[in-house]
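Input set for joint prediction.
Command: fold jointly, output tokens.
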Amino acid sequence: MAREMVRQGGRSARIQEAVHAATQALLDEVGRSEINVPMIAERAGVTPSTVYRRWGDLAQLLADTAAERLRPVADPDDTGSFAGDLRAFVQQYAEEMGSPVGRALMRDVLAETASEHAAARCCAYTIRHLQTLNSRALARGEAGLSVDEAIDILIAPICYRILFANGEPSPDYVNGLLARFAGLNGANPLPSLHHQA
Amino acid sequence: MAREMVRQGGRSARIQEAVHAATQALLDEVGRSEINVPMIAERAGVTPSTVYRRWGDLAQLLADTAAERLRPVADPDDTGSFAGDLRAFVQQYAEEMGSPVGRALMRDVLAETASEHAAARCCAYTIRHLQTLNSRALARGEAGLSVDEAIDILIAPICYRILFANGEPSPDYVNGLLARFAGLNGANPLPSLHHQA
DNA sequence: GGCTTAATGCAACATCTTTGCTTTAAGCAG
DNA sequence: CTGCTTAAAGCAAAGATGTTGCATTAAGCC
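tokens >
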């Protein structure tokens, strides 16, 4: 059986991967609301008790899987200019997160009541991307951005609309946010905000 | 038994109220993670099947109860000036929502996967308050605000920090948001954004 | 007062969750 | 390479939760 160990790390890692894969497959096939732990366990070829012991309950497994799925596979596109990079990234973010699938993932991530690691992971992905855009801009000799400001002005409103108003943000709306962000950085710079006490 | 009918509307309304009360009481007493439907049903003096039939599952009952609890009991404080009103309202919002209790309520509201009415209700409460501040400002001859802009610049970042960074926004942070909002409205007004396509 | 209808109670059943114990497999020392 | 140690998984029974058909109750309406 050693051949099947595509990934080093032993049985434990294999099972984690199998359970993640089974969860994602079932999410696609039967839909979020029809899923339960025994179903996932059977699909993954493990006993339910294993899932319960490692993840606690369905909510945490879904949060873990959703966070995994939201992990970016690549750096944001390089369009040649900071303005272009930022626009492309934010538009894509709004599209992905605003789609029904993205919304469901976001909700699953936020539903984890126990540790809240999943939400922090997703936030970290966004921060990393914004930092990449910033480094790229600086390397080009452009002005760059404040990550905190970008989150407040661009990312947070998008997420709020998706979660509370429950709709996909329109491209016009996102363009408006980008215009506001550009206006702030161009004409009326403020000192960076501290978001932790 | 008619004396106990504090509220007209029949048995159905009585039971809804009893279940809501039982849920809130148990949330306070034993904590969010220890609660389940049979426990709430017993406390409310109904059978579990009634709860399942009316609310579907625990998540929806918690979302409904949380939205109910987040319903404001009064209009925002009148401090005499628009700037004061807005500051007081936003600071209080950040405090209430950022507290452990507020965070839990917010998560419960967002966890509802079925109808998403609860999140929309909460959003509507905020909008109504902002509209009240606006009317008040206009009545005083002050400039007032755009509700959409206030949500994007003030409310959304606060919610994002609470949900994803998982911490209570500091007063300094909120002051920074207010300064940004004032700067936008004073020096560099933008056309109101459309948030629905 | 009697009828109609929607909602609840009851109880049996199905399913999910937990837990003690056994078994497996990975890591490590000799 | 073999045997020991330990963490994790399997198994199975017990416990709790979720579901459903049918009887009963209560509210609204002639």
